[in-house]
Specification:
Number of domains: 3
InterPro entries: Amino_oxidase, FAD/NAD-bd_sf
Bound molecules: flavin-adenine dinucleotide
CATH superfamily of the largest domain: Protoporphyrinogen oxidase, mitochondrial, domain 2
GO molecular function: flavin adenine dinucleotide binding; oxidoreductase activity; UDP-galactopyranose mutase activity
Strand content: 15-25%
Strand order of the largest sheet: 8-7-17-18-19-16-20
Shape: globular
Largest sheet: 7 strands, mixed
Distance between the termini: 25 Å
Protein name: Amine oxidase domain-containing protein
CATH class of the largest domain: Alpha Beta
Helix content: 25-40%
Number of helices: 14
Number of strands: 22
CATH architecture of the largest domain: Alpha-Beta Complex
């Protein structure tokens, strides 16, 4: 099976970035997608009447263009949610973020956290060259080691010292002493989170937000790119199909792309091998109970509890679970640094047990659905060699007319809105450099 194809610009992957590139390029590109549906990591799955996204998704974009695009995809039918967020530490439920809601924790712990916070403020924060130092400088030793250090091991699967800081942006709130003291002494609630409200489609799960981008896209399903000949500008797919291109736009995970390049220079392969990410097992549960959720989501700081974070998809839309039921999605991360070390069945069993232990599920509750999804590419890991390795690979690819977009294409911690903007930017760049979006019609 072989073809020269219809368009000189070929796209790999029908996730948000690939669909966005296509849409902003007037759909003058063929998209080849290895899966059987569009949406990438933003897909939503209907399982026995429950809708589960591929990891907890909601939109907290501040970008007016993306807000309009998402709303337009579903005729404005979304829920605006002001999330209730909790934290689990020991046997305590703590409001979010913990650093400004210490009240209720053991007194000795609160005192130590505050004393170390004051010390850190007095010492002044230098320019922390790793995440661990950044945490201790900003929160004090006791708080840092009791909360974010533990969470980092569970979510990022590495020690905080192994990570850089450039991914943090506004994701973690660093309070001042007055905020810490108020949160430790008073019952008033200080919700200082980078997410104050989120949007979620009324029906169809998060994926519905992408309908506007998908409309008109020429997606070929079941086409997994297996090899690229950069000299001949030819792609060979696993199903035997061959396709020539002038420009290749890729949202395929960067290390996978490099592995597939025929005669790729050894130093590029080595750089690509240094790129790291976490993987995730999603534990999706359906429970026959109406008032299941105590929050929209919560974080878990107990090391003996397997998941690091638990969401309640049924709280985002009543259409995410059948009447009289609620749903839970728990996240268990692993990586080459911290192997899972157990079967998916064991992850499922242990997570259910954990949910019973912390009181989210009652022993008598009827669990009507219990499934796991194992996802290889979850969060891009910002370790010390991340930047230079990524830059070297992206530069090499561009010299060979391969442009990478999106979270795994660019190998960056991008949310769906940023992945969409990444595809849009490339379409504009190619148009500006002379590729016409109507020439090929
Ligand atoms: C646990 C988790 C929670 C998240 N929560 C949120 C959230 O709340 N809000 C938010 O905005 N964002 C969230 N995100 C981020 C969001 O999922 C991503 O930003 C977005 O999906 C990235 O889109 P993309 O097109 O770059 O990549 P992808 O969505 O991964 O799309 C890439 C596509 O390429 C295809 N592909 C891969 N390899 C090949 C190949 N060899 N050949 C052909 N096709 C291939 C894939 O099947 C996929 O369809 C979350 C991500 C995770 C992991």
């Amino acid at each position: 099976m072989s073809s020269s194809g219809s368009y000189p610009i070929v796209t790999l992957g029908a996730g948000p970035a690939g669909l966005s590139f296509s849409s902003h390029f007037n759909h003058n590109t063929d998209i080849y997608e290895k899966g059987t549906s569009w949406g990438g990591r933003c897909r939503s799955h209907l399982i026995d009447g429950f809708i589960f996204d591929e990891g907890p998704h909601s939109s907290f974009t501040k970008d007016a263009y993306i807000q309009k695009l998402f709303a337009g995809s579903i005729e404005g039918r979304f829920n605006e949610i002001f999330p209730r967020i909790l934290n689990r530490y020991g046997s305590n439920w703590i409001r979010h973020p913990v650093q400004t809601n210490l009240k209720g924790l053991p007194v000795d712990l609160v005192v130590d956290c505050i004393m170390d916070f004051v010390k850190a403020e007095q010492d002044g924060s230098g320019s922390a060259d790793n995440y661990g130092r950044w945490l201790i400088d900003g929160f004090g030793e006791k708080f840092a080691r009791t909360f974010p250090y533990v969470y980092t091991r569970k979510y990022w699967t590495v020690e905080p010292e192994q990570m850089t800081t450039e991914w943090i942006e506004q994701r973690i709130y660093r309070p001042d002493l007055a905020e810490v003291l108020r949160g430790a002494l008073s019952d008033e609630f200080y919700n200082i989170h980078y997410i104050s409200s989120v949007r979620y489609p009324e029906t169809g799960g998060f994926q519905s937000f992408l309908k506007g981008l998908q409309k008109g896209a020429k997606v070929h399903y079941g086409f997994e790119m297996a090899e690229i000949d950069v000299k001949k500008k030819k792609i060979i797919f696993k199903n035997g199909f061959e396709r020539y291109y002038e420009v290749l736009v890729s949202s395929v995970p960067l290390p996978t792309l490099v592995q597939c390049i025929r005669d790729c220079p050894a130093e590029m392969r080595e750089a690509a091998n240094r790129l790291a990410c976490t993987s995730i097992v999603l534990v999706n549960l359906g429970v026959k109970r109406n008032n299941l959720a105590n929050s929209h989501w919560f974080y878990i700081y107990n090391e003996e509890i397997l998941p690091c974070r638990v969401h309640f998809p049924s709280e985002y839309s009543a259409n995410n679970s059948p009447p009289g039921t609620g749903s839970i999605q728990a996240e268990v991360y692993y990586s080459r640094h911290k192997p899972l070390g157990m079967s998916l069945e064991s992850v499922l069993e242990k997570t259910i047990q954990n949910m019973i232990t912390i009181g989210v599920i009652d022993k008598d509750d009827k669990i009507t659905l219990a499934v796991c999804q194992d996802i290889k590419h979850a969060q891009v890991l910002y370790h010390k060699q991340h930047n230079e390795s990524r830059r070297a690979v992206l530069d090499y690819l561009e010299k060979n007319n391969i442009y990478c977009i999106g979270r795994y294409g660019e190998w960056a911690y991008l949310w769906s809105d940023q992945a969409i903007l990444s595809g849009k930017r490339l379409a504009e760049r190619l148009v500006n450099s002379g590729y016409s979006i109507c020439h090929f019609l």
